[in-house]
């Protein structure tokens, strides 16, 4: 899949979020990169046995206080080649992008890894 098509999937995943969630997303950029750097792998806690599909870097909304001003945007990175490695068909890639975007946005709202996974599991149960 080319980069433009993949980026469109990420934009669509954000657009599918409930409006009240979209409206509360503040000071966060969502970007697509091919693969994580060594530093990103370390930050994301990836090991030799797993693949890093996405990464949230920033100050979660739940931790922002009155002194949260004049800061660079948080960054959510979606890793295209990592997702393509685990999801081989266009439909599976779309599903994985949606899941990864939602997972990383959960971190933006202050959910830890277990909480973000629980949210994703609940969403899959509804679908």
Query: CATH fold name, please?
Result: Zincin-like
**Mean pLDDT, all residues:** 89
Name the helicity range: 40-55%
* Lateral strand order in the biggest sheet: 1-3-2
Task: Give the tally of structural domains.
Answer: 1
Which geometry do the CA atoms define?
globular
Description:
With 127 residues, the protein is of the alpha+beta class. The protein has one domain (3-126): 2-Layer Sandwich (Zincin-like), CATH 3.30.2010.20. It is built from six helices and three strands, in the order H-H-E-H-E-E-H-H-H. A three-stranded mixed sheet has the order 1-3-2. Helix 1 crosses helix 5 (90-108) and helix 5 (90-108) packs across helix 6. The chain starts with a helix and ends with a helix. The model has no long low-confidence stretch (mean pLDDT 89).
Give the structure's gist in a few sentences.
This protein is α+β, with helices and mostly antiparallel strands.
Topology:
Elements: H1 3-15, H2 19-24, E1 28-33, H3 38-43, E2 54-57, E3 74-79, H4 80-86, H5 90-108, H6 113-126
Parallel strand pairs: 1-3
Antiparallel strand pairs: 2-3
Helix pairs in contact: 1-5, 5-6
Structural key phrases:
alpha+beta, single chain, 3-stranded mixed β-sheet, Zincin-like, globular, 3 strands, 127 residues
């Amino acid at each position: 899949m080319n980069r433009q098509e993949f980026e469109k999937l990420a934009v669509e995943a954000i657009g599918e979020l409930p409006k009240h969630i979209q409206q509360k997303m503040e000071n966060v950029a969502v970007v697509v990169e091919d693969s994580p750097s060594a530093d990103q792998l370390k930050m994301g806690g990836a090991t030799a046995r797993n693949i890093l599909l996405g990464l949230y870097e920033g100050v979660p909304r739940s931790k922002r206080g009155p002194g949260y001003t004049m800061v660079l945007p948080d960054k959510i990175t979606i890793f295209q080649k990592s997702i393509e490695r685990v999801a081989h068909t266009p439909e599976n890639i779309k599903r994985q992008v949606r899941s990864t975007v939602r997972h990383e946005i959960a971190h933006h709202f202050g959910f830890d890894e277990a909480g973000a996974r629980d949210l994703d599991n609940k969403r899959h149960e509804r679908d």
